[in-house]
Amino acid sequence: MKLAILHYHLNRGGVSQAILNHLHALATLPDGQRPDEVALLYSGRKEDWPSSVWKRSEWEGEPPFPVRLLAAQELEYDDAIHCDGPGLADAVDGVLRGVGFTPDDTLLHSHNFALGKNASLPDALRLLAQRGYRQLLQLHDFAEDFRPSNYRHLMRATGSQSPAELAERLYPSASGMHYATLNGRDHKILLGAGVDPERLHLLSNPVIEFHGLPPRDEARPRVCRQLGISEDTRLVVYPVRGIRRKNVGELLLYSALAGPGVCHALTLAPVNPAERISYDDWCELAEELQLPCLLGIGDPLSRQGRDVEFYDALAASDAIITTSVAEGFGMVFLEAWLVDRPLIGRNLGRITSDFTEHGLRLGGLTDRLLVPGGWIDLDAAREEVLDLHSWACRDFGAPVPENPTEGWTYGPDVDFAALPRRFQADVIRHVTANPESARQEMEQLNPGLADRLSGVAAEGQPVAENAACVRKQFSPAAVGRRLSEIYTAIWADAPDNKTGGDRIDSLPDGEHILRSFLRLDRLFPVRLEP
Question: Which family does the record assign (predicted)?
């Protein structure tokens, strides 16, 4: 079997890293189970993609299978007002056949095909299925998950008049077309939309070891000099780009609560201009309040960074923190243990339940961080959240609920992440102005917060046991076996002769996906605010 992996680009990022890790996972399979050959289809962009995917020592000199890069400019992000599915299908088919990949011997594995980055892709994949290509459609992220600009683009370009009509266009159903999700939450959502359970697979990302991590004793003095802090300062690192869904304000709140003995540091600034507005606001607030919180420490000095190498930051840290409110897979929940560091911060239960079922213990995380409602104008905050949700529903073309979701409450105390950004800033200012009393109030509201702030919560975590769990359950070898099982199942799923062999239906209730995501109790304002 030949394998063609399709994504819009190979620039550095979560999906590109997952593709690279999948190649390493497939390489762990024995002869006969590996693909004969792999083609990576992309638009032509590949910033920071390695010159060889086999740079790790165990494969250098003897690649387990050939990997070729095939550029098709038609896969680039688009803002067209009309789809051109046939044109894109012809381009992909032509590139593949040009190197000897045919429907008879090729499985096509597409990533994030329905995210709205290229509105022609869903139509193109249907056409390629009709031409005989068996496919795995892997969803990392959803346009329906509070990504209104992506969703609007899909609506406009496909000419869809309603969410139901768009869902019929986006999500095919046919023999030989299987779906994969990263987590159990998305798996349940697709089941609800009507994906055949035998054509739906849970496929976690493999977690790769941090080869080349410097010793802590070597990295710590270097990083502390770069950050301008003493080596006695406790260093808590947030290893992400500071985009909105990473909930950067909560990092500032932890910094305000912890005080001057702890330095919180986020590694990279966002590159997307749309994400810079929020990030720059947090940078200004941290500077205004003189918080021991440094943002963008991995950025170059010319861009207000500290030029700290990523591996140095991890090695020098005392703990890893996450405050994110939305993840497709949540790699940080697994990777922290492989750098031998405890993990503290915010839990995403719908994501991490997959990990805890395998035995991972995440005692340093909390599902919410409550702040006293009396610190802010709670009624005004509640009104803004309801207005934001109504706006989002209208923007997605969905009905606006007459009443808040049953069971949804807002006060008397409220999760920090559920606040609009300006109210989050008010909370941080209040804590900075009243450090002792504010900390006491929050510690009373949040059991375990005192331990997270003092470092006690980090010290007591089962780092070695969690690392062993990750290496067993999410290693390249484990995910390689899972990939092999899924590809084998797809290959055995022959076209349905009863439907003529080329009929492509749609999911029975594809709109269920939008209904599942566009819920008031899933809304975090910082994801939608500029």
Answer: Belongs to the glycosyltransferase group 1 family. Glycosyltransferase 4 subfamily.
Distance from C-alpha of 23 to C-alpha of 38, rounded to nearest angstrom? 9
Q: What whole-number distance in Å separates Cα of residue 272 and Cα of residue 274? A: 5
pLDDT tens track for 346-375: 999 999 999 999 999 999 999 999 999 999
* 3 state SS of 134: strand
The arithmetic mean of pLDDT across residues 340-348, rounded, is 95
Angle at 394 between CA 77 and CA 126, to 5 degrees: 40
Alpha-carbon distance values, 247 to 22, 278, 366, 368, 457 (Å): 29, 10, 14, 12, 21
What digits encode the pLDDT tens for the residues 36-70? 999 999 999 998 898 888 876 566 667 789 999 99
**Beta-bridge partner residues of 41:** 6, 70
Neighbour-count burial for 441-470, b at 16+ CB within 10 Å, e otherwise: bbbeebeebbbbbebebbeebbbeebbebb
pLDDT in tens, 177-211: 999 999 999 999 999 999 999 999 999 999 989 98
Q: Kind of pairing, strands 365-366 and 343-346?
A: parallel
For β-strands 200-202 and 234-241, DSSP reports them as unpaired
Start-to-end Cα distance in the chain: 46
Structural domains in the chain, CATH included, are 2-206+475-527 (3.40.50.2000), 216-367+446-471 (3.40.50.2000)
